[in-house]
Amino acid sequence: MIALVKQGANEQQIENLLSWFHSRGLKTHVSVGEFQTIIGLIGDTSQIDIDLLEGLEIVASVKRISEPFKNANRKFHPEDTVVDICGLKIGGGHFQVIAGPCSVESAEQILSVAESVKASGAALLRGGAFKPRTSPYSFQGLGAEGLDLLMEAKEKTGMPIVTEIMNAEHLPLFEQVDVIQVGARNMQNYELLKELGRLRKPILLKRGFANTLQELLMSAEYILSEGNQDVILCERGIRTFETYTRNTLDLSALPVLRELTHLPVIVDPSHAIGVSRYVSPMALAAVAGGADGLIIEVHNDPPNAACDGAQSLTPEQFADLAVKIKRIREAVGQQMKIMNVGIIGLGLIGGSFAKAYKAAGHTVFAGEIDESILEFAILSGAVDEPLDEDTLRTCDLILIALYPRAAIEFLDESARYISEDTMVIDCCGTKKNICAAGFEAAERYGFSFVGGHPMAGIERSGFKYSKANMFKGTSMIVVPPYYDDIMFLDRIKRMLAPAEFGRLTITTAEKHDAMIAFTSQMAHLVSNAFIKSPTVLEHKGFSAGSYKDLTRVAWLNEQMWAELFLENRDNLLYELDLLLDSLGKYKDALIEKDFDHLQALLYDGKRLKEEVDRR
Ligand code: PEP
Ligand code: MN
Questions:
Q1: pLDDT over 90 (residue 343)
Q2: N or C, where is the chain less crowded by C-beta within 10 Å?
């Protein structure tokens, strides 16, 4: 059963409703969407009186849902689930390829396959250590030793590991495994599923070869209802009367599951078809059909594989397939185009953009004067290659993450190498000068320039503190060259999508600088000045949250902020005068011991804070 909450209901009202449901022995799942809050009710809802519920002021409507799966149901979890595996995302538009041999056979074998599939673009490595074989006389996998070999391959290649579990007793051995696979034969091993539900680790749940989609979702439900929300479903072929293929790949599972559930769905064409030469066409069909990923068996020597050689691609065949997968993803519009992204400056912001775009599957080039940082960024996988005149020409998007003066210098030197269909966005803390320079360069060389300022950051600076989710849910201030072109604004939005901003704030350079003088620059200036009282040396033991809040940004990068303050001198002086004037009033009231005046000043401040927070 689901209850739609009316727009405008406040937190307390929702809280009361939830307590009422809980008192009826029901579990609740609350999904707060942009426009609607939905409460999913789990448990025996037969005793709930729908009319009574609908009579409540905050309830818009109540529906009984017939599907027996609740947690997996898209009806009360409308947004796609995005599963994060060591920073790699699957679902919600994020696509990943898992590749590797059916079973781990030796250190050399697993490492050589891992290195070759990684070079072709696979993000995760598969390999079975515990193998479910039809015959007890067949190779059963290397067991614990196989897991060790997988870990070695992970250490050497950086690829997260996907491997199958057959027995919950083996769980201690799987601690370092990144994604635990439940094979087709264990899809309905409910005790195992419950155990996996208690973990906080992604589970790849394969469809049994004689199971319906509803049964697959009910198995997912076993994991989800225990608390583990990171479930990836996998269509891997079902048994039919057909004998030319090992199973029949049920690609209709893709749109059906997409409708029924928010969980990511990937496809395993290898086990579905069982014949290597049929694998690539069906992998491409799965991509076109909207799969969130693929899991494909690749072996360095298929004729001599210990298991499933007949369906394994060679590394060369896989490389060929990987190129086609990219093309199909671009061709079927709903998937994003793989962009070439140039990042100038690998500090906190540039580094975070590099990681975000890379995690979303784009190609990232970077320019950075400190060569050791650039090298480190390439080694750590945040950047593909250094940015030079040639790669600059190929960029769809260029993000300039430098201080304002250096950003203008970059444009002076490099604008002539930028192609006409490139979008250039800067990330400077002030907008007037950089936007003037950017708009002019864009006009001259034909590319598009947009001023930008991400409202994200932490007190620390530098690449080593950068992270892929730095911008998630935050606001990006955008200063476009013109405001009446919806298509252009939409293009900006799509190009920034991998950073996962929560909103774009469209404004002018003048408004930006005036606002930022207050919301950011004054906060830094005041914090930095505040801490200069000699009393600070003894603050320990005498300070709490208010001290911490006021001094948080005193720790700043003085070179950058001095430059930003001077760039925005007029706006900052205006705000500073207001503050000094305001402080003077408090001081006067204190000198005059004027209780009423002081209380009135404080009351006004409090009222204003209440008012602006309510907006
Ligand atoms: C496997 O992935 O190697 C495997 C055994 O798959 P399935 O459970 O789909 O047969
Ligand atoms: Mn296999």
A1: yes
A2: C
Q: What is the DSSP letter of 325?
A: H
Which atom from ligand 1 is nearest to the alpha carbon of 182? 8
User: Residue 604 corresponds to which tokens in the numbers above?
Assistant: 């006004």
Structure tokens at 329: 């993803």
- Rounded-to-integer distance, Cα 439 and Cα 451, Å: 9
126 compared with 55, residue with greater pLDDT: 126
Q: How far apart are CA 280 and CA 267, in angstroms?
A: 12
- The helix/strand/coil state of 336 is coil
Say what the alpha-carbon torsion angle 602, 606, 607, 613 is, to the nearest 10 degrees: 160
521: pLDDT strictly greater than 70: yes
Q: Do the Cβ atoms of 457 and 344 come closer than 8 Å?
A: no
3-state secondary structure labels for all residues of 274-296 = CCHHHHHHHHHHHHHCCCCEEEE
What is the Å distance from ligand 1's center to 515 Cα?
A: 57
| pLDDT tens column, 168-226 | 999 999 999 999 999 999 999 999 999 999 999 999 999 999 999 999 999 999 999 99
For the CA of 184, the nearest atom of ligand 1: 8
Q: Name all residues whose Cβ lies below 6 A of ligand 1.
A: 102, 128, 132, 183-185, 206, 236, 268, 271
**CA distances (Å), origin 609, targets 475, 572, 575, 605:** 21, 21, 17, 6
At residue 30, the 3 state secondary structure works out as strand
Distance of CA 146 to the CA centre of its chain: 31
User: Could you tell me if 419 and 447 are in contact, meaning their C-beta atoms sit under 8 angstroms apart?
Assistant: yes
Residue 289 has pLDDT above 80, yes or no: yes
Predicted confidence (pLDDT) at residue 459 exceeds the cutoff of 80: no
- 26: Cβ–Cβ under 8 A, 6 or more apart, which residues? 41, 42, 43, 44, 45, 48
Burial of 29 (0-12, 13-18, 19+ CB in 10 A): middle
Which residues fall within 8 angstroms of residue 311, CB to CB, at 6 or more apart? Answer: 102, 246, 270, 271, 273, 274, 275, 276, 279, 297
Q: Which of 98, 164, 189, 273 to mutate to test the pocket of ligand 1 (most atoms within 8 A of CB)?
A: 164
Measured from the Cα of 236, ligand 1's closest atom is 9
> Cα separations (Å) of 490 from 427, 435, 478, 504, 529?
19, 20, 12, 11, 42
Give me ligand 2 centre to Cα 153, in Å: 19
543 forms bridges with which residues in the sheet?
none
pTM above 0.90, yes or no: no
Between CA 76 and CA 78 the distance in angstroms is 6
Backbone phi, psi, residue 126, to 5°: -105, 160
| Terminal CA-CA length for the chain | 34
Mean pLDDT of 284-298: 97
Q: What is the mean pLDDT of residues 412-430?
A: 95
| 615 pLDDT more than 80 | no
Q: How far is the CA of 310 from the centre of ligand 2 (A)?
A: 10
Pairing of strands 2-5, 423-426: unpaired
The span from the CA of 434 to the CA of 451, in Å, is 7
Q: Is the pLDDT of residue 338 over 80?
A: no
- H helix count then E strand count, the chain: 22, 22
